[in-house]
Write a structure and sequence with these properties.
Blueprint lengths: L10 H7 L10 H21 L3 E2 L1 H4 L1 E7 L6 H10 L8 E6 L4 E7 L4 H15 L7 E5 L1 H29 L2 H25 L2 E2 L1 H31 L7 H11 L1 H25 L3 H33 L13 H9 L1 H17 L6 H19 L12
Helix pairs in contact: 2-7, 2-11, 4-5, 6-7, 6-8, 7-8, 7-11, 8-9, 8-11, 9-11, 9-12, 10-11, 12-14, 13-14
């Protein structure tokens, strides 16, 4: 056995070389239980606590006042109270960046005369001119229009995705992918309710963007499942094994793509939002980060095991028990390696000059993997001709 075909001794080494043998299907119940518990917590929070909708959805008045050592959040609250405005539902926060330092105040809609009076009071308290206090008004109907358009976009997206996956793969895969995407959206929306994050138009955009990331992770696995389904059709391999083999083969690729996608989002949150004070980036990046993590989980522990449950032994007879351990690893590595493994065993038995040490380990591993190699490379039985 060449050095490149040796099984790595550490888990990271096997992951890096594509030699993992994780029984994902065997752990499907754990994955489903975790997903259900998270969904119950997040969806339950949506029904009990609701969502903290931003000004763009609820409507109201907002001011941006230059902050200083003598004017901060407490002084802004005092101005509102002096003008007869309750601060219970008001949002008052300090937003700092390299270019400016502002106190943002958001309250429910007040009359135009009262709004002008509050603007003048903010300017006097901050020691600036009224032209330096930025006032804006948002109608609640605008937020309703955003919600309606987002729902329409979501419905159209799901219909198009269902048609595409059904044509490109099959309808069972389409159902499994839709379930995974629904899981991701509910987890993200529920997390915003559970932790009290504010929902803004940027958050809605992130919700829709999450669907693309969730679908990508799932399609990567489904494409390999479809490829292996044809590869092992001759030996009538149980579908659970096909799923396990496929997921182990794309595991490293999924990890790499997920990390490369998550790192820029973390940069948006830490640098763009944390250091530079870009609030919009925080609203967008936070939902995106939660959705990406949920998408990684759902593609591995929800979509693919669900597909295996749909297609378990459909149109095929299981000839043996599921592959696990070294036998599963042999199938993940591929038939070419198992063929060379069998040759190693034969030469070792013929010469009886096998050296001790690492070569003995290779021969032992070969003895385990060689039967699997024969099984996976066994040609299909010829069909009997029907009598006329």
């Amino acid at each position: 056995m060449s050095r490149g075909d040796q099984i790595a001794s550490s888990g990271l080494g096997r992951l890096f070389r594509g030699q993992t043998a994780v029984d994902f299907y065997g752990r499907r119940r754990i994955g489903f239980i975790v997903a259900i518990v998270v969904l119950l917590a997040t969806v339950g929070s949506m029904f009990t606590r609701g969502l903290d909708l931003g000004l763009d959805f609820e409507g109201g008045d907002a001011w941006d006042i230059p902050a200083s050592q003598t004017f901060g959040v407490d002084e802004a609250k005092a101005v509102l109270e002096d003008n007869g405005v309750s601060t219970n539902g008001a949002r008052i926060q300090r937003r700092s960046s390299d270019t400016n330092d502002l106190i943002t105040v958001q309250i429910e809609e007040v009359t135009q005369a009262n709004a002008e009076q509050i603007t003048t009071a903010f300017a006097e308290a901050a020691g600036v001119g009224t032209d330096e206090v930025n006032f804006s008004f948002t109608s609640s109907t605008w937020g309703g229009e955003i919600t309606d358009k987002a729902v329409r976009a979501l419905i159209i997206f799901l219909i198009v995705v269902s048609i595409f996956i059904s044509i490109r793969f099959e309808w069972r895969m389409a159902i499994a992918a839709l379930v995974a995407m629904a899981h991701d959206v509910l987890v993200v929306v529920g997390a915003y309710s559970l932790f009290g994050f504010e929902v803004t138009p940027g958050t809605v955009i992130a919700f829709l963007t999450i669907l693309g990331y969730s679908l990508y992770d799932t399609i990567v696995v489904f494409d390999r499942v479809r490829e292996n389904e044809g590869k092992y059709a001759g030996v009538r391999m149980p579908y659970e094994d096909i799923v396990n083999i496929s997921m182990n083969q794309v595991l490293m690729r999924s990890i790499n793509t997920s990390i490369s996608s998550i790192i820029p989002v973390i940069s948006l949150l830490l640098i763009g939002s944390g250091l530079l004070g870009a609030v919009t980036l925080r609203e967008f990046g936070l939902a995106l980060l939660i959705g990406m993590i949920s998408g990684i989980y759902s593609s591995v522990f929800v979509a693919t095991p669900l597909l295996a449950g749909f297609k378990s032994n459909v149109g095929r007879k299981a000839r043996r028990e599921r592959l696990t351990g070294d036998k599963l690893r042999a199938a993940v590595i591929g038939g070419g390696v198992t063929g060379r493994v069998a040759a190693t065993v034969g030469s070792a038995d013929a010469s009886n000059t096998t050296k001790r040490g690492s070569h003995d380990d290779d021969v032992k591993t070969a003895a385990v993997l060689e039967p699997v190699g024969r099984l996976l490379t066994h040609p299909p039985r010829p069909r009997k001709k029907k009598r006329r």
